[in-house]
Structures are given as structure tokens and as C-alpha cells.
Amino acid sequence: MLKLQVVDDDGQRQLFESADDEVSIGRRDDNALHLNERNVSRTHARFLREGSRFFVEDTGSSFGVRVNGIRVLTRTAVHAGDQVQIGDFTIELGEGLGTRGFDRHAAGTVVSTVQITPMDQATLTVVGDVLGGDSHLVARSPFIVGSAETVMARFAHDSVAGEHARILLEEGVYRIEPIAGAELRVNNMVSGPRPLQDGDSILIGDIHLRFDEPSSVRTDVFGSAGVKSPGRGVTWMAFAAVAVAVAVVAVVLGVGEEKGAPTTSPSIPVAGEQVESPGEAEAELEAPAAAVDPIAEKLAEAKAAMGHRDWNRAIEIFEALQKDSQAPEEASMLMDLVRVEKRRWDSILSIDKLSSKGQHVKAWELVEQVRGGISPESAYHGDFQKRVTKVGSRAAPLVMEASRAALRRDEYRLAIRLVEDALRMQPGNADARALKAEIVEAQEFAAEADAAEAARRKTQRKSAVKKPAVAAKAANPADRKPSRAERKKAAKTAYEEGRAAKLKGKNALAITKFKEALRNASYPRAHKQLGILYAARGDSTNAIKHYRKYIRGMPKAPDRSSVENAIRRLGGNP
After folding, report:
1. How high is the pLDDT of residue 266?
2. Is 67 within 8 Å of 76 (Cβ atoms)?
3. Strand, helix or coil at 8?
4. How far does CA 111 lie from the centroid of its chain?
5. Residue 30: what are its φ and ψ, rounded to 5°?
6. CA 64, 68, 69, 73 torsion-angle sign
7. What DSSP state is assigned to residue 406?
8. Which residues does 218 contact at the CB level (< 8 Å), separation at least 6?
9. Range list of β-strands (E), 245-376
């Protein structure tokens, strides 16, 4: 049972219950939940139930749907206590949502969840160029981040696990921990469970996030304003301690007056005596300010710049620190790391620049040059891997076309080298694998044709008999026998014409052309095509005959086993 508490802008409440798997919401009368306001679309949203899980989905509204203050653009999981904003209406999910107030994590463990008050909610902001621009309020503890539809901050990206990490608020302090061994980086370092601080850089897969604590201006126990609270729990405990102390003092003073204890009369200043102002008296009671270490402060600033990948700012700070003899060795080590990361980022920008100009092959050459310099520990390893996939998918078709051109010129070695380059660019490219097999087949055929021609010439030389010289006669061009190169070219042309006819369904013409290719030269591939065509006609005798000739002519053919199976299916013996 789905229970919804609907609250309008006047605070009027109504309870809606439904046992259906889908509940439509909108201004139109035929919606299951009818909300008649101008800022509600006719078909605004819908709630969906899948087993014990519930989702809300915007169905193309003009005004949007917000869950706990965040606008959602895709189907989003909702839990008991979540608030869904539709127009002027706030819809809160009540009982009947299965595991209300609980969330499941690794290995079947059930962890109780806590709703975080708005003033204590931290923020996760996407700062990279992947899925950039989103912000997520950490409204519950634990707060799950991942790619699954059921998590609280969803990033639909291949590099993000279904449930990647969780953020918890415990005793006023936020901390983050990976789920089920997922890789988590905080401030460019591989991390396990650890506390979070304001401005920390978090890398979830390839998604770069910035953690911002709840921003609030408060007055601490010494009266200083504008201090950002590291955790609400600590602040309120401090206030509570001060309140108790004041109450105790008030009680003691009150008791003294009731018992007639003597009180000190106010002093009257004597002429010429310097009167101490209240501000000076308070100043004497103030605790001495803690000394600020400028080097530590600058080092922290540089680390924050590193967390935001602001390499130029980090280099500027480290260079200033290196001029100070008191700077720690850590500053020099971090400076080297920053310079390396900046070079890596500059290389990625150069790859993007070439790719944006359509120079995909040159971009790939740069990818190959810098591949070894971007290790898995780099902050840009994920970004670089995306470029490898993107640039490779664009460069591979261009290199394959160059390989086909080399094949048409019978430049087999060049064609093989180019198609192997294409396979390195895009290892899963089935067209590139097929092209490589075709080139290998053509190369083997050319080698066998050369061997056959050499054997024929050798036989002719042995059988040649010297004849008496005869007066030279004018040669008749029609009587001239074509050369080996001409016969080979004619066979290839006939074969290609046969393939074209076969693709058009002109099987009779295709058979004629394949036979013509065999008459001009030994062309084993033509036997295979004839076997296919005769088998399609139901002429198993001729099909088996040509299949066998193909195997004899191409004993190392990559598809030999499939051709032998075809012979067996036709009732023959390979």
C-alpha cells in the first residue's frame, strides 16, 4: 500500500492511498491523484512500485519534480520520509514503503538511516566535465552514491559501481567509505574510510565531486562571529555548556541574595582616577589567540588547490614556499607531483584539440606517445582512458579505409600493418577483424598464384625444343597471349563482379563471373563462392566439388572448419 500525505501551500493536508503499481499525478481529471493548480502540468509525474521499491518519475512536466529539494530528470528512488515537490504541493511518503527508514548495503547488511536536518546537510557538487553541473544535498545518513536507480546520488556512468560509496554523519562529523571494494579517491589519494572536510575533492570512478560542509555563521563561546562550523553537534554542545554555566551562576547569585549575603555596592570613581572600560575588562578575560603558522596555512591552501585540480595555483603557492628555508620537504615532493599532473592534463587538452579539428589519426598518435606516462595512480587516469576509447573509435574507420586502399593495390604488408593499427585503436571492431582475415586470404592466394606461375614457366623451359629460325612475321595482336599480371587482374575483376552480382541476387550472373575468374587464374575463393551458390540451388554435387577445391587451394584458410562442416551437411566427406 502506497500512502501519500499531500500538503498544499496553505498547509492543508490530505491523505492519499493506493494499492496500484502506478499512480499518475497531474491537473487533468483522469489522473489518480488530481492536483488542480496552474503550476501543475496536465500529466505531471507518476509514482511507480516495483516489488518493495518505489520510484517517482517526471512525465514531461513544464515545472519539474523535486525530491528533497533537488530537481530530478530521470526515474528516482524514493523512501519513506522523502518529500516530493510538485508545483505548490509537497507530497511526503508515509508508511507502506516496505523497509521504511532502512537502507540495504553490502552483503545483505541492513543499516538504519537517519534524516539529516536541512541546517546540517552538506553538499556534493560535480566539478568535472563529466555529468557536470549537478549538486546533491546529503539529506540522509548513510547517503549512498552510485549508478543504481535506488541510490540517493545517482551518476549513470560506466566507471561508477551500482553502490559505490556511502557518506555518514556521526557525532557532527561527516565521513566517507567505499562499498564492496569500489575504488575511492579523496584529494587524489586512494582512500578507505576517512573523515571529510570542507572543500575535499572526491573521485567516484571518473566523476569528480567537491564536498562542502553545511555553511553557517555562528558565534562561538568567546563571541567571535563568522566561524564555519565543522559539525553541528559540536556547536550545539558548546552552546549547551555555556547555557548550563550561566544557569548555575544565576542560581548561586540568587541564593546569596535570599540569605541576606552582603552585596558589593557600586564604586564611585574618584576625581583623577582612570576608569576601566567594560571593553578593556573583557579583553583581559579573553583567551590568547592561537598562533597561526603561515607555512602550514599556505601548504593547506596548496593542497586544496590540488584537490580542485587547479595546478597553476598550486604551483604558484609551492614556488613561493620553496623560497622559505623553513618549508617542509613535503612541499618539494608535492610540487613535483603537481608538475607531473599538469603535464598530463596538458597532453589530454592537446588530444582534445586535435580531435576537435577532425585530426583523429594524429590525436591517436599523441595518445600512443603519452599512454605510458599516465599511470593508474594519476588523477587523470580515468579521463585519459575515456580519450583512448573516444579517439580510437574515430580514428579506426579512417585507418581501415587506408588499409582497404592498400589491399586494392596489392600492398599486403601495408594493408596488414594498417588494419592491426585499427585493431589497437578499437580492439572490439568486428569489421577490422574481418578485413584482416580478407587481407591474409588475399596474400596467401597471391603467394600460391606466384608459386603456380613459377612452376608453369619451369615446365615450359624443360619442354622447349629448339626450332630452326623462321623469317619474322608481323605479330597479330589477337594471337598474343595475355601476361601473368593481366590474367591475375582479369581474374580479380571477374571475382569482384561475381560478388557484386551475388549481393544483388543475380546468382546466374554470379556463377558465370566466378567461373570466368577460375579460367583466368587459379582463384580458390571463387570455388568457395560457387559452392555457396550451388548449395543454395540444391545442387549438392557441384557444391561439394567446389568446396573441396577451395580447401585444396587454401589449405590454411581461416574458415576451413566451417567449409568442412558445410560439406558434411550436404552429405559429403571433406
Report:
1. 43
2. yes
3. coil
4. 28
5. -85, 5
6. negative
7. H
8. 225, 227, 229, 235
9. none
Q: Using one digit for the tens of pLDDT, what is the confidence trace for 434-465?
A: 888 888 877 887 777 777 777 777 777 766 65
Report the candidate in 55, 44, 52, 71 with the shortest Cα–Cα distance to residue 22. Answer: 55
Burial 307-331 (b: 16+ CB within 10 A, else e): bbbebebbbebbeebeeeeebeeeb
pLDDT over 70 (residue 98): no
pLDDT over threshold 60, residue 568 = yes
For residues 320 and 307, what is the distance between their CA atoms, to the nearest angstrom?
19
CA-wise closest residue to 58 among 48, 49, 502: 48
pLDDT attached to residue 74: 76
Is residue 409 over pLDDT 90?
Answer: no
Instruction: Supply 452's cell numbers.
Output: 603456380
Rounded Cα gap, residues 189 and 176, in angstroms:
13
Query: Terminus-to-terminus CA distance in the chain, angstroms?
Result: 68
Strands (DSSP E) found in 301-414: none
pLDDT tens-digit series, residues 142-185: 888 988 766 778 887 778 888 899 998 888 889 899 987 788 88
Q: What cell was used for 200?
A: 575535499
Q: How far apart are the C-alpha atoms of 178 and 449, rounded to whole Å?
A: 63
Helices in 308-328 by DSSP H: which ranges?
311-322
> Which of these ranges, 125-134, 201-210, 306-315, has the smallest mean pLDDT?
125-134
Rounded Cα distance between 334 and 301, Å, is 13
Strands 22-26 and 33-34 turn out to be: parallel
- Contacts of residue 255, defined as CB under 8 A and 6 or more positions apart, other chains included, come to none
More confident site: 526 or 478: 526
Annotate 180-216 with DSSP letters as a single string: TT--EEETTEE-SSEE--TT-EEEETTEEEEEEPPP-
Cβ atoms of residues 211 and 122 within 8 Å: yes
Phi, psi of 418 (to 5 degrees): -65, -45
Yes or no: say if 103 and 78 are a contact pair by the CB < 8 Å rule.
Answer: no
pLDDT digits (tens, 9 = 90+) for 35-88: 888 889 889 999 988 887 888 898 888 888 988 877 887 788 888 778 899 988
